[in-house]
Amino acid sequence: MKKFFKVTILASAVSLLAACGQETPEAPAAKVTDIKTYSEDQQAAYAIGSIVARNLVAPLKRQEELGAPLDKDIIVQGITDALNESTQLSDEELQAVLKSYDEKMNTLSTDAARIEGEKLEAEAASFFAENGKKEGITTTDSGLQYEVLTAGEGELASPDDTVTVHYTGTLLDGSVFDSSVERGEPATFALNRVIPGWTEGVSLMNVGSKYKLYIPSELGYGAQGAGADIPPNSTLVFEVELIEIAGQ
C-alpha cells in the first residue's frame, strides 16, 4: 500500500547546495573505472558526490510517481555549473523556482493522498458489507465487527480497566503494523486511552478470550492515519488475547 507524504524538493535542493558548498577535491584527469585506484582525496570527492545523489533518489522517485519527473541530465548540469561557479540562475531566481516547484509537488501529493483515501473508504465499505455476512462475525451499533476465536471464562473487561494483552495488528492487505506477539512481550494499557475500536472491542472480552476485531477507520485513526505504517482511512484488523485485568 502506498504511503503518501508531502515531498519537499526545496529541502532536498538546500541539502544538495550545502553539500556542494564544501571544498571539493580535484577530479581525476581521466576517468578511472576502479574507485580503489583513486587517491584518498579523490575517493572523498567520489563519496561526496555519491551522498549528494543518494539524498535525491527518494524524492526524485516520488516525483516521478506523482507525474512530475525531473530530467536527471539537467540536474547533473546544475550541479556541474554550481561546482564551476557558473550557475545560470541568480540566488533569487533559484529560490523562486524551487518554491514554485515545491508548491506544485505539495498539491500533487495532497491530491494523490485524497484519491488513495477515497479508494480505501470504498474498499472498507465493501469489506465490512461482505465480512458482516460471514458466520461467526458480529457487528455492533458503532460498526465494529468481531469474531470470537477463543471464549475465555475469566472476568469481563470494562472500558475503565487497565488490561494486559497480546495482539497483532494488520491492514486489510495483511501487512503487519504492530505486534506484541512478534516482540515477545504483552502490552499493558488503560482501555480509555486507546482508539475507540479497541476500547469497545476489548470491553466485550473475558480474561482468557481471544477475539479478532475489525475496526473501521472512524473507530481507529480516521483521516489522519498514524505514522508511516497506517495510512489515512485505514481499516484495522487485530487479533487480541486478553491475558489479565489489573487488580484482578
From TrEMBL:
One GO MF term: peptidyl-prolyl cis-trans isomerase activity
GO biological process terms held by the UniProt record: protein folding
Similarity annotation: Belongs to the FKBP-type PPIase family.
Record bears the keyword GTP-binding: no
Catalytically driven reaction(s): [protein]-peptidylproline (omega=180) = [protein]-peptidylproline (omega=0)
The PPIase FKBP-type domain, residue ranges: 160-246
Species classification: Bacteria, Pseudomonadati, Pseudomonadota, Gammaproteobacteria, Alteromonadales
Swiss-Prot/TrEMBL keywords: Isomerase, Rotamase, Signal
Domain of life: Bacteria
EC number, UniProt record: 5.2.1.8
Signal peptide: 1-18
Origin species: Moritella yayanosii
Stated name of the protein: Peptidyl-prolyl cis-trans isomerase
Alphabetical list of PANTHER family matching this protein: 39 KDA FK506-BINDING NUCLEAR PROTEIN (PTHR43811:SF19), FKBP-TYPE PEPTIDYL-PROLYL CIS-TRANS ISOMERASE FKPA (PTHR43811)
Entry keyword Membrane: no
Pfam families: FKBP_C, FKBP_N
InterPro entries, alphabetized: PPIase_dom_sf (IPR046357), PPIase_FKBP_dom (IPR001179), PPIase_FKBP_N (IPR000774), PPIase_FKBP_N_sf (IPR036944)
Membrane-spanning parts: none
